[in-house]
Automatic annotation (TrEMBL), chains A, B:
Gene3D superfamilies: Chitobiase/beta-hexosaminidase domain 2-like, Glycosidases
Record's protein name: Hexosaminidase
Annotated organism of origin: Aureibacter tunicatorum
GO molecular function: beta-N-acetylhexosaminidase activity
Family under the similarity heading: Belongs to the glycosyl hydrolase 20 family.
Highest taxon, organism lineage: Bacteria
């Protein structure tokens, strides 16, 4: 793994350096050399595909031109052969078609000088990434649009860079999935892990057992087999592998609803699709041969739709209550020397692995499948790192691993939290390190719908994508955020609604009133983190539509983040400009409650944030008084401290994200 | 047709009257009686389905609850049987399942009093419309959400209330189509006319002739047969019929690309999918028996996917150039006594009608199919009303008609233009009037993509939906706009992106700068109307993505509309409050150019509106001077008049929509 080498050649004065520094490349390439000069774009910009010319490159070049259209206002039409008679602006040369498999070559070289642009790559996959990098380098000066001269040599640190989508809990239309694939490609992610089945739904058409999608989904919310082919083909054009997951032996209620005879519960028991969140008891019976027959049928049908070599069998969160209560299962364990439920699950996993291997595939499972008796052919998907669990245990024991611990974006942590987690513990042995083939960010969808998903995943996940692609020592949080703000705009230009859908929610909540005061509050409030927004999975029903204040809010609340930086700076330096900006924020917040109150009165749905808004106003007032040098009597201190405590209370299932900074100002 | 009876029972003082007057029902019901009292909503609100209980009512009730969730913040979960043990808030009683066919009963009675709500309807279709009306009556006061007491008796004026979608020119995903169906249902429209084939693409999978969708669409942009079934079922749950159109004998390039042997051009000729807009020459050969064999195959396969009784064969804009140049066709005409191309097309239409009737369907065609020799079984779709053409000619001659003349929403007229067009000429004979079974708004998609379609159709089309549903004498434009502003919010609450997508475009165009000054300009600029934005179809290629200034702009530019009303009022009354508001607008516009200029400099894509922005600033300055009582010298008048003339110039393919008002102020 190469270190990032960033060389600024400061040859041609301030302007070009400024632009080079302002570049917002994400993920940061392994090697970046900024040179003098600019390659200007006019309406004659065109692409020449030399060497390999396949559907992926043609489609990718077409999409690149459309994105350049959007950004420049020109229209760069070319025929689909991308053969240019005259001078070409951009020459793409890939040597061969890349295979969608791990350890494929994804490297590229991108060279921009004043005369033109060239992309060279061993495979079309690398060439496609070069286009993604190129579109991020688009710059502007008084004369118009240009690409700054530079040389980039780039390749990923990890071969498996995934995002997990969960249409089981809240269904995502094909269009919504495609939007995520577009965004993933732009961030050079190459695996979409598709969590297709869980207690809440079975989301894929089965022609063999149609009841699986008919009874296993309501309101027709499943993918037809044509839909799946469409998604897989769309992903492949973007260099993305799609890995299906059918979660067993737990999380399998829809399968049990159709085949109750392979369940572990004894006697009469009705398996009902879950409509709340949580961990539930229904579990397949690992001692029943029919279980394996049915799974073989289902897996064979599903896996045939996904050309990828890997197949995910879930395996998580089986607490074994139904196993414990089943005498036959207990007898089976005794008979076979299976000392506990983990051993029984390993027996199950090894049986399932035989099925998966029999289909010519490799089996992946969440880390509950790990047990020293598990076949070494299994790939362990690490996610647990608490109560003495070591997320790297399987790698240390010789298993290949994918790491998701630290990348659970449903927890709504800020981007920097994930950004600073490395998929590889530096203290692992070289052999164990090599077994970590990559990492994945899972977007569990208990609180996520097609409407709000863009803002739940993006732009945060771009920072995670950088962690998976770029060098280990790329860890400058402030620079990450500087680039992330720009990347957020790029994602919006490419069609994501992570900002605009939040505006829609604010409009709806404001019931036709001016949304500015609500926006002021949203911009400092973050949805409650980890699992506190929805305690025990019981506060929000699955059928709810999630267009509330907490859904308009995001992690990385933008004004809170800026304010926190300002206060940090001000506390260190006492800088007057910082103070002025701090005062401006405080004044806005202090006055905001009075602006928001009439909106709340016209829109009782906002009642849940009335106190939050008032608390913000009050705590801001104390911060202003402190900056003004008020005489801090004991009574003032008591009241100010109460204001800080109140400002820490949740409102509308969000929390103000700059109370620590306010407290610093108050105690100054 | 009943007259609208609006009775305000002013029993309980100001508050309840105010709310009643503020109701934004659209389309306006035939009879509305506002009573005293309120039915309050708490978290126990529930629905009881009595009488008929079918999938449509269950699904509709489920969706109603979700929309009420969104608006109130409660979560109204009910089991899917909608049987309530305790007291029920809303009782739905439909007598029988409505059939999706013309002249079906769609009437309903909605009764709200302080104790509860009841819906009674002869069919579930009427009951569904009652739910749409009910959701619009949701009101708020200091104590929370409630439904005002009222009695509504309602039924549509026309049985065919359509919107035409055109995925041929720019494809629309299944999700995008479903969003339109949701919006249509909320506006009580009941026909989605699906223009599935045109020179630019054949958008439906053919299992019989797979080349039709394979060669007839690029980038996989077609509906699978499963997609079509999904769309038809989704529409049916909302009481919407789906009418497919396969346009012949012109507009049929994809068919000719696959079957060049049935084309009218002689000799070697390559049929190529069009990627520009316009009227093109390729035409089926009506003298070739094979033409009818192939059409029979295609129509039979397509129509089997659409349960509706009607099938649209297009028939428009065949200029017959290839017929004129084909000797065999000329000979055939002579031989069969067909005096001109219209007669030949009628021969063709009658042959096609036999095919359609043979499938058990009724044939609809655009009004070019009309000719006295056309079978009386055909339904004529009127759209032409120029150069001596009478759009009602076919109705006068005894044919059933659907009217689209006056409702071409692709022309980007303001809502009032369409609103004031009645589908029926009052001077028609009673018999001819009866033959007008309804009307349709066509959304031709030369400049319309999945990304911008919401704002091209909505909210404007809600005013047209009112024209199709409500009484003939409901024609108060000012009240229509008052309600339309509210309906726009309802549509946004239900998931349309007609506002938020425009915000996204503005953000992208502003390249990360503050979008406020751009928004100020967008809010007074309207996309050039009729076909002037894209002269001759040659300014914008089909592959273009349409995220420019003109796509952020809409018809009915909101600030221009408000300003025009203010000036009208002020010129009549000299009202001081109006003057103050006028001055506030003028000041903003005058100062706006200076704010926008730095944004334009950072974003050359906005160069196209630099002059527009500057012209707005200058003309506003003259209007201010005029209001200030400047001495209007000849020189001042000349310069002011030049400023007005400049303000009329297009910029970014838009025009300022309040220049007449500015001119009035300047000449005051």
């Amino acid at each position: 793994m190469k270190k990032a080498i960033i060389i600024f050649l400061m040859v041609f004065g301030f302007q070009s350096i400024l632009n080079a520094q302002e570049l917002a490349l994400m993920p940061l390439p392994q090697s970046l050399e900024i040179n003098e000069g600019k390659f200007r774009i006019d309406r004659n910009f065109n692409i020449q595909i030399e060497g390999l010319e396949n559907e992926r490159l043609i489609n990718g070049s077409y999409r690149f031109l459309r994105r350049l259209d959007d950004r420049t206002g020109f229209f760069f039409y070319q025929n689909n052969d991308f053969k240019v008679d005259t001078a070409s602006s951009l020459v793409i040369q890939a040597q061969r078609e890349g295979e969608l498999k791990i350890h494929e070559d994804e490297s590229y070289t991108l060279l921009i000088d004043t005369l033109g642009i060239s992309i060279n790559a061993p495979t079309d996959l690398g060439a496609m990434y070069a286009l993604e990098t190129l579109v991020q380098t688009l710059s502007v000066d008084e004369d118009g649009y240009y690409f700054p001269a530079m040389k980039i040599e780039d390749s990923p640190r990890f071969t498996w860079r995934g995002l997990m989508l969960d249409p089981a809990r809240h269904f995502l239309s094909v269009s919504a999935v495609k939007k995520q694939l577009d965004a993933m490609a732009s961030m050079k992610m190459n695996v979409m892990h598709f969590h297709l089945s869980d207690n809440q739904g079975f989301r894929i058409e089965s022609k063999l057992y149609p009841q699986l999608h008919q009874l296993g989904s309501s309101r027709g919310e499943f993918y037809t087999q044509d839909d799946i082919k469409d998604i897989v083909a769309y992903a492949a054009l973007r260099g993305i592998r799609v890995i299906p997951e059918i979660d067993v032996p737990g999380h399998a209620t829809p399968i049990l609803k159709v085949f109750p005879e392979i369940g572990s519960h004894t006697g009469d028991y009705e398996y009902v699709l879950e409509t709340w969140s949580g961990v539930f008891d229904p579990t397949l019976d690992p001692t029943n041969e029919k279980t394996y027959e049915i799974l073989k049928d289902i897996f064979t049908e599903v896996s045939a739709l996904f050309p990828d070599e890997y197949f995910h069998i879930g395996g998580d969160e089986n607490e074994g209550h139904h196993w414990d209560a089943n005498e036959n299962i207990q007898a089976f364990m005794k008979q076979n020397g299976l000392e506990d439920n983990s051993a029984l699950q390993t027996y199950f996993s090894n049986r399932v692995l035989e099925i998966v291997e029999g289909m010519g595939k490799k089996m992946v499972g969440w880390d509950e499948i790990y047990n020293p008796k598990l076949s070494k052919k299994a790939i362990v998907h690490g996610w647990r790192d608490w109560e003495g669990l070591d997320v790297y245990a399987a790698a240390k024991d010789g298993y290949e691993m994918i790491i998701s611990e630290g990348y659970y974006i449903d927890l709504m942590h800020n981007a920097d939290v994930h950004y600073l987690v490395d998929p590889v513990d530096p203290e692992l042995s070289p052999k164990a390190k090599e077994l970590i083939i990559g990492a994945e960010a899972p977007m569990w969808s208990e609180l996520v719908t097609e409407f709000n998903i863009d803002s739940r995943i993006w732009p945060r996940t771009a920072a995670i994508a950088e962690r998976f692609w770029s060098a280990e020592d790329v860890r400058d949080v402030e620079d990450m955020y500087r680039r992330l703000d720009r990347v957020s705009l790029y994602l919006e230009q490419d069609g994501l609604a992570h900002n605009s859908s939040r505006e829609s929610i604010m409009k709806s909540l404001s019931n036709g009133e001016d949304i500015a005061p609500l926006r002021n509050l949203v911009n400092v409030a973050e949805p409650m983190k980890v699992y506190t927004r929805n305690p025990g999975g019981k506060m929000n029903h699955n059928y709810y539509t999630f267009k509330k204040f907490a859904d308009a809010a995001t992690a990385d609340a933008p004004d809170a983040r800026k304010f926190n930086y300002l206060v940090k700076d001000y506390m260190k330096t006492g800088d007057a400009i910082a103070e002025k900006e701090i005062r401006s924020y405080l004044k806005t917040w202090e006055a905001n409650h009075e602006q928001l109150l009439p909106v709340i009165q016209q829109s009782p749905i906002l009642g849940e944030i009335k106190e939050l808004s008032e608390n913000l106003s009050i705590v801001s007032q104390y911060a202003i008084e402190s900056l003004n040098g008020v005489n801090k009597t004991d009574s003032w201190k008591r009241k100010a401290s109460l204001a800080v405590a109140n400002a820490r209370k949740q409102g509308g299932r969000t929390e103000l994200a700059m109370v620590d900074s306010l407290e610093l100002l108050i105690n100054k």
